Automatic annotation (TrEMBL):
Transmembrane segments: none annotated. PANTHER family: CONSERVED PROTEIN, HYDROXYACYLGLUTATHIONE HYDROLASE GLOC. It comes from Streptomyces tagetis. CDD domains: metallo-hydrolase-like_MBL-fold. This is MBL fold metallo-hydrolase. It comes from the Bacteria.
Amino acid sequence: MTYSGEVRVGGPADVHELKDLMITKVAVGPMDNNAYLLRCRATDEQLLIDAANDAETLLGTIGADGVASVVTTHRHGDHWQALAEVVAATGARTYAGRYDAEGIPVATDVPVDDGDTIRVGRVELTARHLVGHTPGSIALVYDDPHGHPHVFTGDCLFPGGVGNTRKDPEAFASLIRDVETKIFDALPDETWVYPGHGNDTTLGAERPHLPEWHARGW
């Protein structure tokens, strides 16, 4: 079936099948968080992005093969409610942005800086540090050698705008600057965007609206 990226809490996962990577999207918890399970097709190693909530659902999605790594995109509590339980059940390595790690109540094994590489099997993801929603938010970019890039943006980029900066002009200026320079300027319109909540989008769908976001200040 064609991947849509439209999932709901309590409903089935949606799977995006790429040549080298399988991406399983599932919605969990009272804040309708997205969690993404990445599986290297060559090695079957798995990586989870945001153990947000509902460890039972996440562990069921992970399955018997386990998960080697869990990446937390940022320190806000709705993105790590199931982290302790998933790590206890799987022994996974934990990754988070260096400047958000102290705000996550599960030890971060690998603090992540801008430009760092995180691997799942033979697949490489590049971390981009995006400041404004939190001090240490990270996005993960998969530059698919067989197609267009894919980027997991946490709460830094959604359909319709950047993440919440709590009406702080400096935080907004920082976040939109980082999103523009590190995401929009670096990646093509075909880039698929997987946000921390809600439906997916593409950079091409959002790019024409950047002036509107600047003008409204959020």
